[in-house]
Specification:
single chain, alpha+beta, 7-stranded mixed sheet, two-stranded antiparallel sheet, binds flavin-adenine dinucleotide
Amino acid sequence: MADYKAPLRDMRFVLFELFDGEGLARLPGYEEFTRDLIDPILEEGARFCEEVLHPLNRSGDEEGCRLENGVVRTPAGFPEAYRLFREGGWPSLAGDPEYGGQGLPHLVDVFITEMICSANLSFGLYPGLTHGACVALTAYGSQELKEAYLPKMVEGSWSGTMCLTEPHCGTDLGLLRTKAEPQPDGSYRLTGSKMFISAGEHDLTENIVHLVLARLPDAPKGVKGISLFLVPKFLPREDGAPGARNGVACGALEHKMGIKASATCVMNFDGATGWLVGEPHKGLRAMFSMMNMERVAVGLQGLGVAEASYQGASAYARERLQGRSLKGAKYPAKPADPIVVHPDVRRMLLTQRAYAEGGRALAAWTAQALDAARRDPDPARRREAEDFVALMTPIVKALLTDLGFEAANLGMQVLGGHGYIREHGMEQYARDARIAQIYEGANGIQALDLVGRKLPADFGRLLRSFFHPVSDYVEARKGDKALREFVEPLAKAFTRLQQATAQIARAGLRDPDEAGAAATDYLRLFGLVALAYLWARMAEVSLAKIAAGDEDRFYAGKIAVARFFMQRLLPQTGALHAAIMAGAGALMALEDADF
Ligand SMILES: Cc1cc2nc3c(=O)[nH]c(=O)nc-3n(C[C@H](O)[C@H](O)[C@H](O)COP(=O)(O)OP(=O)(O)OC[C@H]3O[C@@H](n4cnc5c(N)ncnc54)[C@H](O)[C@@H]3O)c2cc1C
């Protein structure tokens, strides 16, 4: 399996040269996060991911998880790696300081999460879900529940899950059947079966805390009758330590395509004791409180895999000798040229790299807004940041996971047959990346969220948080000759996006199928324009460095990839625009029975 080296140089570029990482310390609550503190956190994170997590990626995939007498065993090395992870304080890094967390800004946390996803996606799911559960509990749990559970979950000795899905109910949660009956002592008895529950059962932590969606006896039908409950595997004793076993157990493990070291469990609740989180029948709202962040985190899974696959493919392409350059031998002393000389191989590598580096900038831009939404003292800036996060969340989730899978697939192709067999680990990246397009709201559902909820919200108010900075940028750089090759294609693609937005608003009002039919193409068009804006800015920063005499080859590389993105990838927006403008007619014409 190819080595993984955390791309710290690029992360620092995004954090401190493209965005204002140094300015984080000016936000209330983030004062201590100066560059002096951030740099060692990134370096230590990189070391842990490279030396502890990545070596377990392949063995974890081959061994998978096992269910033995109701207990799930994670692959060899995972419990020890998790122990080191905890001892290093990594679970609490982004946690709420009120419950023992270290309150790391999102703008730094995205890089740590990306590294974990690159190094070992399956491992990352265990702490990732716990973090999401902590966010929901912090926002909606009673003081008593928070005090009893959060400190242990934040420090990572207890883990968390999200139990939404049932066999007959995935996207449409209104169909869910798990029941919760009130008990005289204020607790509830939960009965039902959940499936596909990540980290539902495992041997990494002392206790597992399930956040479960269920219906109360008087619940209205549909999504308005769903409540959220906390159900621990072991009921805490008076002293807070795990006590009696609760009525929840893993019935089976799913056999699946990828992320094999992540336990995907059928969870049976058989009169399990639980407590209400938030108000009755308002469970979806509580569950979705963690969704913005969780969806960005799933986007990072796509990004992490894209980066790791690029690293494997580019190392191989520089070594593997096959054929000669079309212009004649480039390395005549060798029996053949390395495949990196071939235009088609370069197309694949540059596509991977443009998606990974562009995606990293997009995730960081969104993370910066998450920080501003939480910490900026100016209410107007806070609201604008909230609008931006709401708008970009479905785009980050769906675009980065789609691009992550495309990149992993290209990575395999670069290695030819050696990519398809297991030895180099490239096919694992493709298998692992695939699920991120499905869970946490399938990507088609993200696209519907964008066109159905985010675009019309408050007469298009959210859109302004993206459209204004992009049009201001284009306007301000119109006459700049050095930037023309970046700004002109951006402006053209942005016009396409504006036209597509107007078309969806018009046609979608008349016929909702029109918006539904355009949704996926529109999300991709939007995402590519966002990447183009960021690539133009990254090229601008790099050109300025070179003009100032900086000789770091990094900047020339950035400009080359920016050029590739503008010339060879951004033109996809023309095809997407045409598909959107064609409308829903051809898509809806066949009778259902004719499929
Ligand atoms: C490995 C793995 C881990 C998972 N982890 C968890 C977990 O920890 N907790 C949890 O609760 N769940 C988890 N899930 C479940 C996952 O979130 C669901 O699979 C996902 O929500 C989709 O639901 P579904 O599979 O029932 O598909 P369906 O809802 O049946 O959807 C099938 C297809 O139809 C499309 N579709 C459905 N409805 C609409 C609509 N209204 N409009 C347009 N298109 C539509 C979807 O986009 C999708 O392409 C996991 C799943 C897997 C495979």
